[in-house]
Amino acid sequence: MDELLNSNIQIIDLLATKNWIEKNQNIISSKLNIDIIEITADELKKISSLTTPNEVFAVVKQAEFTFKIDEIKSELSLFLESINDPGNLGTIIRIADWFGIKNIFCSNDSVDVYNPKVVQASMGAIYRIKTHYVDSIDFLTELNQVDNFNIYGTFLEGDFIYKQELSESGLIIMGSESHGISKDIESFINQKLFIPNYPQDLKTSESLNISVATAIVCSEFRRKIF
Amino acid sequence: MDELLNSNIQIIDLLATKNWIEKNQNIISSKLNIDIIEITADELKKISSLTTPNEVFAVVKQAEFTFKIDEIKSELSLFLESINDPGNLGTIIRIADWFGIKNIFCSNDSVDVYNPKVVQASMGAIYRIKTHYVDSIDFLTELNQVDNFNIYGTFLEGDFIYKQELSESGLIIMGSESHGISKDIESFINQKLFIPNYPQDLKTSESLNISVATAIVCSEFRRKIF
Questions:
Q1: Is residue A156 less than 8 Å (CB to CB) from chain B?
Q2: Contact yes or no for B75/B102 (Cβ under 8 A)
Q3: Which residues have C-beta within 8 Å of that of residue B176, sequence separation ≥ 6?
Q4: What is the pLDDT of residues A87-130, one digit of tens each?
Q5: What 3-state class would DSSP assign to A158?
Q6: C-beta atoms surrounding A20 within 10 Å
Q7: Under DSSP, is residue B180 helix (H, G, I), strand (E, B) or coil?
Q8: Where are the domains of chain A?
Q9: Do B212 and A208 touch (CB under 8 A)?
């Protein structure tokens, strides 16, 4: 709730239990300029999709984000192709937040960022990170025209990520868990990366979960700065 | 299914649709020495906890794993304190499999490794990784007596992991997402590690998801070998 109140997201309605309202008089008087609707715990349970709902429920305006290629070209951003698991998208938004990635681009066929499971898994990061839905080819074609801009992707046949020079800005493309990165999108990638399994000669799992792989890749891009 | 058939897990019953049986005659004749029970897709749906069940359902003997401190002391292992989310435990088993970690130790109050959501999230890795349930204090007391054995843990006030000498063998302790590592267990830790957020001065999410943090830590331990 703190994260929502500290964001630029517009709150339309706030429904809360008597207990929550009594405990949060400070927040209410300093940060909210709408009337709070008092409801019972039972009523809250009916309107929430969570098994164990909190004491407060907010109706917020879905943010409409815009972006400029000029900003993107000097930052590190993520592109997710056909991501369909809401838990993974929420976890990736939380990872982006940790590693200072401000913009996530999703292909138009990806899961909705306002899916309740995305919101929950993001643990509040959804209020800080801009998630955009784009036509993949149009977006990548435009970015491809930027000079010296690197587009990375993860592939089982990629170069070991630990040994690569990774730029401070660029775009990291992560493919869907079931199908990887499609051929159309692969053609935009300058450098293929791979998180090697250990030991190399042992047969292990076929892949890492997409949010786990995203976390390791983001960590590798940021580690050199420390 | 391949992963189960290639493991040492004992299959007690195998129930499959006609379609699966017809497509897998090779596997059936070469790798299975039990009779297969043919069932319909509808029957399978009733016995499976998955919304979209596969075409085959196996009843297997729950493995009972043992370990020797002598083996553990020369390997890298994980210790999970009070992990309660089955999706996270399954994901961590899959991560361990990728990074060549053979043994995971869980405190006795952790979620059951045979919870269906653990099995599903592990994506078959559960058949290769040994997950043990232990009394935390007894186990750590015993490991603590091994010479030159490092016990690591992740803490918000730990040293930046990117700059540390990490040993090839040792124990990595991950705390529960809600409470972190308890004081009792903290006293066994030689080195506290932290995955720094970026940029350091920006207020971001309060923490990373436990499976995401485990992935980055395991990757850091293994990266030096490449």
A1: no
A2: yes
A3: B81, B82, B83, B84, B210
A4: 999 999 999 999 999 999 999 999 999 999 999 999 999 989 99
A5: strand
A6: 22
A7: strand
A8: 2-60, 69-223
A9: no
pTM of the model: 0.90
CB contact under 8 A, A95 and B212: yes
Cβ distance B30 to B53 under 8 Å? no
From A98's Cα to the closest Cα of chain B, the distance in A is: 5
Give CA–CA dist B34/B22, Å, rounded: 16
User: What is the complex's ipTM, to 2 decimals?
Assistant: 0.90
Return the CATH number of A69-223, one of 3.20.20.300, 3.40.1280.10, 3.40.930.10, 3.50.50.60: 3.40.1280.10
Closest-CA residue to A219 (of A162, A154, A160, A158): A162
User: A222 vs B198: CB contact, 8 Å cut-off?
Assistant: yes
**Closest by Cα among A104, A107, A72 to A185:** A107
3-state class (DSSP) for residue B119: helix
Q: How many CB pairs under 8 A join A and B?
A: 100
Each residue's pLDDT tens digit, A74-93: 999 999 999 999 999 999 99
Q: Are A174 and A130 in contact (CB under 8 A)?
A: no
Taking CB atoms and an 8 Å limit, are B91 and A219 in contact across chains? no
Mutate to test the interface with A, among B128, B159, B212, B226 (most CBs of A within 10 A): B212
- Distance CA(B129)–CA(A183), nearest Å, equals 34
